[in-house]
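Worked example

This section walks through a single chain of length 375. The input is the sequence exactly as stored; nothing has been trimmed or padded.
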Amino acid sequence: MLTIQRNPTRLVRAGKVEIGGGSPIAVQSMCATATRDVEATSAQVERLRAAGAALVRVAVDSAADAHALREIRERTGADLVVDLQENYRLAERVAPHVAKLRYNPGHLHHHERRKSIRDKVAWLADVAARNDCALRVGVNCGSVAPEYDERHPGDSVAAMVACALDHAALLDELGFQAYVVSLKDSDPQKVVEGNERFAAERPDVPLHLGVTEAGLLPAGEIKTRVAFEKLLARGIGDTIRVSLTLPNDRKHEEVEVGHRILADVREGRFLSAPDLSGLNIISCPSCSRVENERFVELAEQVRELTSYAEGHDVTIAVMGCRVNGPGETDDADLGLWCGPRHVNLKRGATALGQFGYDEVLTVLRRELDSLIAAR
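Given that input, the structure is written out below as tokens.
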């Protein structure tokens, strides 16, 4: 068994789960069902918990979701986390029913702009403190607040780290200590670099590790391993989430993969980091924000369709919703993000239009051929 000196992070409690402080590394996952569907979401929470998820996250985007959460809480003994992306004001309604609240600093920037970031974070910290909740500062490369991109042009990792450090300092200043931080990207190397930079500055803050939009198996597990093996072996990381594009009935496999990676690292079994050059398909983990259930099928069709281009350095991103889709496809060569009836197609940050689910693959093939020919 490998002896690893873990970073001396402080202990944060989220319900029954201890994060940091030398506690065992907790595996998390997230529901893909619509939160307002109480029966389906409660059942998925229990399947994830049975698979070994210490914390289960659900998205709350509306008053209907917040109302449903109360009943979900009554149906499960799992420790729940709420993801507050575009609706941070719902925190007060959901905090009594969960162990942890996650907010995205980039999305916080874009809402209620008349209020300062400090005032918004202070309000969230107060809500969390009054309800004995932990907080996660969830920073993603694809949705960092514009001020950080302006301060660090061309260096998305530096922008992400600066944002995370500022929010950690702000919570410290407010006297709120029950928080963890995550720094995520779809590029494993950026995940490694971002977390190493942050940990060097703030070794006391527990870190939640994840490669966002790792995509379909088996590539999704490989990308995740590339980042996790390097970080965990260096003592960085206190809780993990594996983000895979999976249909609802296989969502528990995220948890199984997470436990498998942890077991391999403990036993000193490391995979050689593969060469990630060539075709790179990024796809988000299906969650309750997906507006058309054909998203997972589309991601699989994109992988099959584009296999002929595996020798070309091209990144294609397939996103399931309007929350992360527009921004997190900007850095891809070709990006698709799904709406209820149409798929939005982009070339870099340039929108190419909306296409039906039955026609978008033909257009994608044409654009991919054009991109390869241009290079």
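What to look for: The chain has a mean pLDDT of 91.
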